[in-house]
Structures are given as C-alpha cells and as structure tokens.
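Quick one - inputs below.
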Amino acid sequence: MKSMEALKRFNLPFFLLVILICAVVSLLVLKDIYTIANKSNYTEQLSSEDLDFSNEENIEEEEEAAPSSSPNQLIEFNQGSQNRCDVMNGKWVFNRSLETQYTDASCPYLDKQVSCVLNGRPDGDYLHWQWEMDDCYLSRFDGADALEKLRGKRLMFVGDSLQREQWQSFVCLVQYHVPPKLKSMKHGRSLSVFTAEEYNTSIEFYNAPFLIESNSDVFIIKDLRKRILRLDSISKHARHWMGVDILVFNTYVWWTTGFKLKTTWKSMKNNDGYEEMSVDVAYKLGLETWANWIDSNINPNKTRVFFTTISPTHIRSSEWNFNDRDVGNRCYNETQPVMEKGYIGFGTDKRIMRVVEDVVGRMKKVVSILNITQMSEYRKDGHASVYTEYGGKRKQKSDPKYADCIHWCLPGLPDVWNQLLYSFL
Ligand SMILES: *[C@@H]1O[C@H](CO)[C@@H](O)[C@H](O)[C@H]1NC(C)=O
Ligand SMILES: *[C@@H]1O[C@H](CO)[C@@H](O)[C@H](O)[C@H]1NC(C)=O
Ligand SMILES: *[C@@H]1O[C@H](CO)[C@@H](O)[C@H](O)[C@H]1NC(C)=O
Ligand SMILES: *[C@@H]1O[C@H](CO)[C@@H](O)[C@H](O)[C@H]1NC(C)=O
Ligand SMILES: *[C@@H]1O[C@H](CO)[C@@H](O)[C@H](O)[C@H]1NC(C)=O
Ligand SMILES: *[C@@H]1O[C@H](CO)[C@@H](O)[C@H](O)[C@H]1NC(C)=O
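Output:
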C-alpha cells in the first residue's frame, strides 16, 4: 500500500508533465497544419497556368537551329569592376511623370493572375516609383534597342512563376516594336516562346521551379509533403537550355515550405526511398547540380548566364506596420513602399542568399547576378494582392487573407528587374 501511494505521488507531476508535452506538441502540429494549409493555397496560385504544350516539335526544331554569335563583349561587364555598381544600394523615388511602357490592356501576353488593373486595382501610385541607386544610374529600358541587341539570338528565362513574370514583362517591354504579323507566341506546358521574326529572335520561358528535377515539375503535386526533389538530376530540363545565347535563372520560393524537404538521388535504387533535409542543405545540393551543369556545358564565348536572386514576399503585415495585430492582412491595401533603409522581411531566407553567393562564387563560368532582393523588399505595394484571378476568372475577393503577396502586378516591379538585365546586355 505504501509503495502504491509513493508511486501515485511520483506519478502526479509526471502525469502533468505528459499533459504539458502533449499540449506543446499539438500546438506545434496545429501551427504546422496552418502553415501547410496556407502554403498549399499559395502554391496553387504559383502554378495556376496549366498550358497546353501543343507545339513541342516546332520548339524542339528551333532549338536545334540555335544562333551562334559571340557575345564576348557582353561578359566583360561583370568582370571589369569599374563599371560595376551596387544595385542593392538605392531608394525608390516617387515620380508622377514616370509612365509605364505598356499596360495590361495593351500587352496581349500577360497572365490574368498578374494583370492587376484589368482585375480592378484602383490605386495607381505603385506604377510611378523609380529605382535610384546611390552610385550609378539605371538607364531606361529601350525596347527597340533591346531587340537590336537580341538580333539573331535566343533569350531564355528559366525557373518558377516569378521568373515567368520577368519573362512576360520582358516580352511586353519589347513586343510593341514588332508589327503584329511578325511576332508570335506559343505556349507550352514546359516551354513558352515569343518570336520576333523581323529580328530573328526569341524570348522564351522554361518552367523548372526547382531548376533540378522533381516529381512536381509539370503536373503539380498540391500536397507539399509528397513532393520529392531529385537533387542530382537536371538533364531532363537542361537539354532545353543547350544552345541558348542568354540564360536567366531563378529558384527560391518553392523550396520554402516551412518543413524538411524530401530528396532523392540517382544512387538510391529504390524509387520510393527519400531522405529528409533542411531547406538550406537541399538548396545547396540542388544549386550545385545546376552549377556543375553550367560549368561543364556552357561555352562562355556563346552563352551568357544570369541568376535572379530571391523575390521577396510580404505576407506578414505586422512586420512593417507595428500597430497591426491582424497578421491576416498581408500586403492588402498597401500603396507605399517600405521606407526603412535596408529593410529585409522574414520571407527572405538569408541562408539561401549566402548559398547562392557561395555556390556562384565558386563556379568556373561567369554568372552575372541580378540582385533584385533588396530593391524588391521595399515594394510591399507592388504585389497582385486581391487583384488577381480565382478559378480562372478575374475576380476580387476583397478579403485580405486571400491577397497574393508573392506575385507582382504587371506592369510593375519586374519591369525594373528587366531594366537591370537590359543594362547588362
Ligand atoms: C485554401 O483554399 C481553400 C479553398 O480552395 C479554402 O477552403 C481554405 O480555407 C484555404 N486555406 C487558407 C489557409 O487560406
Ligand atoms: C536567324 O538565326 C538563325 C540562328 O538562330 C540563323 O541560322 C539564321 O541564319 C538567321 N536568319 C537570318 C535571316 O538572319
Ligand atoms: C521623372 O520621370 C520623367 C519621365 O520618365 C523623367 O523625364 C524625369 O527626369 C524624372 N524625374 C526625376 C526627378 O528623375
Ligand atoms: C573562347 O574564345 C577565346 C578567345 O577567342 C578562345 O581562346 C577560347 O578557346 C574560346 N573558348 C571556347 C570554349 O571556345
Ligand atoms: C482598405 O482600404 C479601404 C479604402 O481605403 C478601407 O475602407 C478599408 O478599411 C481598408 N481595409 C483594411 C483591412 O485595412
Ligand atoms: C544580394 O544583395 C544582398 C543585399 O541586399 C546581399 O546580402 C546578397 O549577398 C546579394 N546576393 C548575391 C548573390 O550577391
């Protein structure tokens, strides 16, 4: 009897401890589930386009007949240091007389998802900010000149839906210099190609959200936990990059799931086998696979390579509006950039920034970095927000929690990314 009592006395705090642990664990799980629910909705938005790949043969043929010019002089920009200036050091200056070079009504190639004005965005200030760097001047994007520089060449953007936006922005910035009969657009599931016959040039987008292969490249797996990354496989995508004159890559947001990533290797015989890894470790291995491919396949006398850094997200309004207790407001209703110099939000994983710097820094071939992160961090006003599409329709849900604070309105910020790219051409 005595020993039973002793046991009970001992058990009571233990029992409480167990309850406490259970409570903490279930809180964590709940938080996780919330994150997954949230994320899976935004990934759905990331991949809303499910385009028909109807012209695969034509596109393949075009690739065989890749132009062979020598962009030697272009490479020097990055190597010669005196021309170089820090794009990240600058500020947004409001200029009412600054006009966009196209509208979502005048450019026929924009996804509904990012055509904010057509989707009903009423405020227009976000279109009149210009990026002024401390040490140098970013010249205006000249569409006719850009086409001239691309004459006889292929420019290809490779990556996720943000890269797709940069591609669409580029096409819209040049397309009105080409008469209707001399231009065409072919949409494919993986590859989409804008062609300007007169210039014998094509401006293309290749969809590869992780750059390396995964089981979610073409047919998107909604459940983030079922996605498996093949960290050492890239050739299925990379064969489409051969012979292109200017390649512009990005990859980031698909890696940031909030939990460990499932990864697999060629050497793993079992198809179902995978290893779980933290984001930064997996990202480093994936990016190294990409870097190795570039190093062993790119002829720098023919091809220039660019890498666009992290496009920031603005999902927590409490980060810039300290009075805002309602975390669900996201970037909804934002009409002004963040003014705090050097602002970096939580959505930008600094470990990933370092991985990019490190991996690219160790490459044998020159890769020019389009460092858009800092300038874009300020632009909480530039996102598609609620002026996007739902279920294929232009429709607003004026409910802050539906705001898309990952993608950007077009015209808008990605035009400035292209201004930067143009300055390298
Ligand atoms: C995700 O979308 C579904 C409908 O598509 C909705 O029922 C659910 O509430 C959304 N989840 C979040 C976290 O917004
Ligand atoms: C167009 O470019 C291709 C290479 O992409 C080249 O073979 C062809 O000669 C060019 N055509 C003209 C008319 O310049
Ligand atoms: C404002 O934009 C207009 C049109 O692009 C330009 O001519 C003018 O120089 C800009 N103002 C400043 C202060 O940069
Ligand atoms: C690139 O051009 C340089 C100078 O013209 C030449 O020495 C070098 O062998 C070329 N490299 C390749 C890979 O063709
Ligand atoms: C958004 O802005 C509108 C118009 O300024 C205002 O009526 C509304 O209350 C704002 N909503 C939020 C959630 O701040
Ligand atoms: C891009 O700029 C940020 C500063 O805004 C810097 O921390 C980062 O290392 C740069 N990235 C690369 C790849 O150079």
